[in-house]
Amino acid sequence: MKWYNLCLFLPLLLAGCGVSESGDPEEAQNELESEQVRYLAIVDSIGVELGDPDYVFGSIEAVSHTTEGNILVLDRAACSVAEFDPDGEFVRRMGRSGSGPGEFLNPLSMVRLGDGRVAVLDVNLGGFFTFLPDGSYEGMMLELLGGEPIMYVTPSVENTFIGTLNTWNLVGDEYIVSVVVGRFGMGSGEPLTVYWQDSFPWDFQDITPLVKGSYFARTWASDRSGNVFVAPRSEEEYIIQGFSAEGEPTVTIELELDPVRKTDDEIAEEAYFWNRRAASMGVSGPIDYQPDEYRWMVHSMGIDADERLWVRRGTEETPTFDVFNIDGDYLFKAELEGVSASGGLFWEIKIDEFGILAYSLDPEDGYQKLYILELE
Length: 376
Prior knowledge:
Blueprint: H1 3-9, H2 25-34, E1 37-46, E2 60-65, E3 71-75, E4 80-84, E5 90-94, E6 96-97, E7 103-104, E8 107-112, E9 118-122, E10 127-131, E11 137-143, E12 150-155, E13 161-171, E14 174-184, E15 193-202, H3 208-215, E16 218-222, E17 228-232, E18 238-243, E19 249-255, H4 264-280, E20 298-303, E21 309-313, E22 320-324, E23 330-336, E24 347-352, E25 355-360, E26 370-375
Parallel strand pairs: 1-23, 6-7
Antiparallel strand pairs: 1-26, 2-3, 3-4, 4-5, 8-9, 9-10, 10-11, 12-13, 13-14, 14-15, 16-17, 17-18, 18-19, 20-21, 21-22, 22-23, 24-25, 25-26
């Protein structure tokens, strides 16, 4: 695999209950075990296999909402962002395939800024590009630092966002990878705030340590009020650290969960899936990524309009969330009805102040839909 192809592909790989620092872990655990489960239900969907091209998705990479609550879908295959109203009716499309103004070659991330602009990362074109709230193209807002993308972006205060950035430095005869999860603004690729950082040596012949040590090392959630939560993608511990936008620690949430070992079929399916996805991106040859033996304790997180933190358990095949208030107190557990077995592991569920959106990375019927969820 050529190095420039590796750089383009790696960012595309991925796509309990808690106690606050002052809480009693045993008491919280007892509350969790006695808590009634609430359920998420699919109330609508957008997307067709064939027909109107405005409703056909090639490869959903990110979803969000406008300031009015319209739905935004970044489709990498279509090189554009499709906008729909809350009822699922097509409104407009931002971007198209190409290398000119307002066009994309390889869009990988998207975030709606506080002022309503939509920012899209295109690695091939070297930065984040913005569209105004009316859908018109504005221009490049942020050039990539050293050509390295800021990935998995989530909104923060004003026109800033949270993401992860990797940089490579040659020290002696080995490469050192430095990775941060931080808050970034327009005009500079340097983080304004760092919430987590690490560095490690990397042998170009072995991709697995890079993926696990950087792109899959942490997951986080943030909102426009300045709340930030960061958790390790760990097989052994369920722990979440809360921060203010400026990086001051606010709360620690922990839960004791039993580790869940993946089946041999699950490991094989996961490895096959990512190799197949690499091939769809134009990477020649297998990436030889070796999945973890156990499932992650924390898969992903989101923050809703009521400043509730939704933490998805990576140990469950059925998408399952532990929901906390902003102070780390456990509220309830939520499960997505009708999605189970190993297929549930490939579901992506995004939560923000306007609602809950979901899609499958590996849909059983062969084409992607965007699902609108509600809490019953």
